[in-house]
Each structure stands twice: as C-alpha cells, then as structure tokens.
Amino acid sequence: xxxxSNPYVxxxxxxxxxxxxxxxxxxxxxTGVDYNHPELAHAFGEYKGxxxxxxxxxxxxxxxxxxxxxxxxxxxxxSFGIAPDANLLVYRVLGPKGGSxxxxxxxxxxxxxxxxxxxxxxxxxxxxxxxxATSIALDWAMAExxxxxxxxxNGGPDxxxxxxxxxxxxxxxxxxxxLPHTDFDISFYTSENNSYESAKVMGTPSKEAIEELNxxxxxxxxxxxxAIDDFTEVDVDGKVALIYRGGISFTDKNYNAYINGAKACxxxxxxxxxxxxxxxxxxxxxxxxxxxxxKMYYDIFYGYNMLTINTTVDDIPETVSDFSSCxxxxxxxxxKPDLSAPGEGIFSTIPINxxxxxxxxxxxxxxxxxxxxxxxxxxxxxxxxxxxxxxxxMNSAEPLINPxxxxxxxxxxxxxxxxxxxxxIEASTIVNxxxxxxxxxxxxxxxxxxxxxxxxxxLSSETKKYSFTVExxxxxxxxKVMTSNNLLVKAGKTQTVNFNVQVxxxxxEAGYYExxxxxxxxxxxxxxxxxxxxxxxxxxxxxxxxxxKYNEGYIAYAYLLGGADYVEIAFYxxxxxxIGNYLGWYSxxxxxxxxxxxxxxxxxxxxxSIPSGMYVIIAYxxxxxKADIIAYLFEI
Length: 636
Description:
Blueprint: H1 2-9, H2 11-16, E1 25-30, E2 49-51, H3 67-76, E3 87-92, H4 101-113, E4 118-121, H5 133-143, E5 147-151, E6 172-178, E7 181-189, E8 200-203, H6 207-211, E9 216-222, E10 240-244, H7 250-259, E11 264-268, E12 285-288, H8 290-301, E13 306-316, E14 319-320, E15 339-342, E16 346-349, E17 357-360, H9 363-380, H10 386-395, E18 401-402, E19 407-408, H11 411-414, H12 421-425, E20 429-432, E21 436-441, E22 447-458, E23 464-472, E24 479-483, E25 486-489, E26 494-504, E27 511-520, E28 525-534, E29 544-550, E30 553-560, E31 564-575, E32 578-592, E33 595-601, E34 604-605, E35 608-609, E36 614-623, E37 626-635
Parallel strand pairs: 1-3, 1-4, 2-3, 4-5, 5-6, 6-15, 9-10, 10-11, 11-12, 21-28
Antiparallel strand pairs: 6-14, 7-13, 8-12, 9-13, 16-17, 18-19, 20-22, 22-26, 23-25, 23-27, 24-26, 27-28, 29-30, 30-33, 31-32, 31-36, 34-35, 36-37
C-alpha cells in the first residue's frame, strides 16, 4: 500500500505545494541500508553514516536483513518516497538478533552531531519507561532541535503496551493504521459436500469485478502452471481457470487466463500455507492452499467441475492496526502514540540481493511516514522548533472512527489521529503541546486541582480571536475545567493559555477518563486529546521478566512499574508447549521499590543441577489491591 499511502497522507499534495524534502537531512537509526539500491542511491553523499554494530564507517544493511532499507524507502525512495529529495544518513545499530541500548544511544548522538534535521527510530523494547536511556536520549535530541520520530511498538491492542523509546516525553511516537480497503468474504462450492475454507481474493481489477461473480455457477478447468502453451489444448472462455503456482509470475498467469477469455482464475499454492502475492490483475484472481487446490483438482475427475462463487464485499475505512501498541506512558501518564500513520501492508525497498522490494507491516513502517512528513514541514517552515513540528503534525491529524463501534478510537490507541501532511504544512495555528494528560487524582476527600497550560501560535497575517471548550466523555459529574473564554492573538505571535482541572474523586468511579479540548478561531477547529485518571491507574504491576546467565548461576528479574506490596518469582518446567511441573525454586519479598527486582539462582534444585532444556519463570506482583502475572521462557 505504499503507493497508496503516500497520496493518502498528503505527500503528493505537499509536492504540489513545492515541498519534496530538498535540502533536508534525515537520519535512519536501524539495521543499515542498501545504499546501492537504485531507489535510494541518489539520497547519499560520500559520507553515509556509521555502523555501530560492526564499528566501521560502512552502514550497509547486514546480511539477510532488510528493515533499515524498507524504512529508508518510505522516506526517500525516488519513485514513491514521501520526501524523495531529502538527504539520507544511516546508523546501523541492530544486527540479525537486535542490538544493545548502548548502540542505539550512539546512533542517536551521532545523528545529532552530524546535523540531521529529523531522525527515525523504527525500533524499541517492551519497557514502558519514560526514564529509560533511549527515551531520555530522544528527549535530548528534541531539545537540540532534531525532530525525533519513533515507532510505538507492536504489542497491541492492550493499553500500557508502549515500549521505550516510544515512551519519550518529547519525541513523536507513532502508531500504525491500515489504509481504507475493501474486505472480501469469499466461499467456493463444487458440490454440496465440498467447500474450500482457504479461498481468498489474491487480486482484482476492481471490487465490482468480484461483486459480479456473486452467486454465479461456472465451469472450471485445470490449466497447469498457466503458461501460454498450457492454454492451447484447454477452453477457458467464460470459465474459471484453475492454475498451479510456479514457473511464471502471478501477473503472467492472470494475464494469460484473461486473454483466453476466462472470467476468473484460481491459483493454488505449491507449498504449505497461504500465498503472499502482489501483481497486476486483469480478472478476479483467487488463491487456495495446496490442500484445497488439490481437492478442487481431483473434483474434476469426480464430475464436480462446476464452481459456485459467493462473495460479500465491504468497504472498510482507515482503521488502527490490531498490533499497534497503546499507551499511556507509565509515570508521566502521557498519551501514546502521539499520532498514527499507515503501517500495515506497506510496499517499500529492501536490499537488491533480497529482491529489491517487499511488503511489510508494523509500527516500524508507520514511523517513517511521520519522519518524512516532518522533513516536508521543516522545509516549508524552517523557523519551526522541533516541538512545533510535533504539535502541528498532531493538530492536523485526522481522528479515526472504529467501524466496529462507530465511536472514536481511544486517545491511547490512535493518538491525535492519522497523519495528514498537507494540512500540517498549510496550518494557520499551532496549539502546543498537541495532547495533555492531567495525571492521576487520588485525593480521597475534597477536591484536587491540577494546572496545565498550552501555547497558541497564530501563523496567519491577521489577529485572531480563539475560544476554548473542554469536554470529557459523558460529561461526568466531578470533573470541572476552568480556562479563559476568549483570547486575542496578534499575527505571528504566541500566547499562553492557562487552565485548571478540578476533580472531586468522591463523585467519580476509579478509572480512566478522556476528553477533547477544542480550540477554535471561528473558522477552523483544532482538537487536542486529553486524559486523566481517578485513583491509581490500572497499569500492569509486573511488565516483563527474564533470566540472564551470571557467573555459575543465573539472575532472574522482574520489572515492577510502580513497585509492589508483594512480589514472587517461581520456576517451572516447560513441557510440550505448556508450563509444566513446579520445581520448588522461588523468591518472594514484601514492599519492593519500583524498577528491577532481581534474585540470584545457582541453577540447582535441592542442591542438584537441573538438566539442559526449556524452562519458565513466572513473576507475580501485587500493588494496592491489583495483581498481575507474567511468564518468561528460557533455555538452560
């Protein structure tokens, strides 16, 4: 969908306005890049960056890796990149099995030293910690004037799954969306007893072409690999061509069926699993697994050569990807992600020796859309600070509606909404910051008041009067917001707006509350997401656990976001994919501080060393009446 996501988020419109990234420099901190790729070579000078994994001056993508090249293509690819005229610097910090935080920090620092305008980090860990080293480093990068953009993580759809550095207070954290698409529900029948559950649409020239097949019963014939010669002895005119995968491209198979008069074709796999395909489609093309395809082939010999096709077609708007990690960030209670961008089914570059192009999904694919957008905004407005770039991208984002509920996605799922580049470039007002958290309100009696402020920058050539409204979902009794009613801001000037939130916890149930601050100049409105918590938030009391080798034994650890009244680590066998017998080793403690809880284990049970194999530790924590548990699989 890269070819679709660029115009969808406003990249092509930005080009029409004259902004293609010329004169701007982006740093990609990742797995390296194939700088010889014909889509990318134009973006490099003599100095290409640095490899902090192999510690040399050659940031070439590592053997078998593709991630950094894919990310780079979204930003600067000559044919489809959002900022194709930008300069690219690459810092390789991840190898085939990842990398260390020290390597990531080195890449961040070098990008700042080398003068990058924007940096992209499509990477992270599962630690929800704004004070983790990489998160703090991005805060400093933003303070140095470099717009830092990072992926929010792929641990969704639950709250609190954002990881570092996506938890950064200042950087732009990006969630993933799926572009508007057509959803096909397909079923095939060759007799009353033979259905084909693996049937899916591989490609079609239009959704209408699929709809026209609904309810039709057509003869189908087997055409081998679907090469030109395979059609010489077979009549497929007005029929469905059943074709085996292999030999030639999917596009060629489809085209050959088309020129011979077929109404549709079915391609079945030559290996286990489903087909992952792209191509140009001349007639509706369906796919089957190897097993279903073979069954359909043999049906011909039993006289079941008539195929009934049933189709249902639904148009689905842009949606948040199920895998996209959600906030808020622990401790700061900030909304994360800050905004979202297309990250599902994205077509981009990969190293030439791996094929040159590929489709990939993840918040890793969403983040470079926003990094490229930041380049275009800075090209259009070189006087913007890094904080203003972040704010204007959030202010101009399009809030998304969940089609399953017909309600807006929660703030900690979509952030301020989906990226819209041209709107950011043409904005006449910046509201900074682009979202607010009032934190937690835990006073048991009376009212608790928290103060916040934001800045309004009038980018127009005339004085504007701004009005403000604040509304929390359901207008709950017990939350009162007090702010200025109207504010005059002269052309090109910035003014601060102060407001207070008063919460009477005695009138509210414990939990999470979200609302919208609407800033209006009478013609346009900017929606600023806001949240607060009543009583202690429901974050996981233990967020992850692990085991590391240490001397002759092991250190088992658990990470406790807010500390724990009680914590325990227990040790189990792992048997046939399941947690097995409890082995009797454990550690427990009371009133543990926030952070790492670590215990040393000598690798024995009752003085006897356990044999090699797979084992599990389970970490359990209780805090203020809430308990959580997490398991970690490891090998001895």
